[in-house]
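Hi R.,

As promised on Friday, here is the backbone we talked about, encoded as structure tokens. Could you run it through your design pipeline when you get a chance and send me back a sequence?
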């Protein structure tokens, strides 16, 4: 029967591994044309933290690490692509923290 073959199927365990990139090596940024030293990305996050100073939304160093990893992984070649990487990062990391704060979910 089909159910017997499904229930008795042999499976192999797979080990989960962590991502290859964990920290941004500065020499990896040298290949990024739009931000070869990461300074523009660092300035962006400092500006964002300046806006959210003394609030619970200030980004930590791990956010900087993730932003620079995104820049390395996407490897933007011009300003428009770099801004798209920044936009994705802010939409994934900052917006989910802010939206429930400003627009709380209410149940009726």
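Update: got your reply. Pasting your designed sequence below so it's all in one thread:
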């Amino acid at each position: 029967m089909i159910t017997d073959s499904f229930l008795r199927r042999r499976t192999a365990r797979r080990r989960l591994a962590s991502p290859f990139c964990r920290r941004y090596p500065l020499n990896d940024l040298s290949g990024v044309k739009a931000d070869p030293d990461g300074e523009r990305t660092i300035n962006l996050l400092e500006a964002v933290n300046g806006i959210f100073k003394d609030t619970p939304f200030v980004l930590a160093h791990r956010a900087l690490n993730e932003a620079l990893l995104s820049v390395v992984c996407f490897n933007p070649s011009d300003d428009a692509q770099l801004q798209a990487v920044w936009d994705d990062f802010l939409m994934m990391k900052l917006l989910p923290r802010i939206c429930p704060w400003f627009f709380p979910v209410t149940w009726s």
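One thing I noticed while checking it: The chain has a mean pLDDT of 81.

Thanks again,
M.
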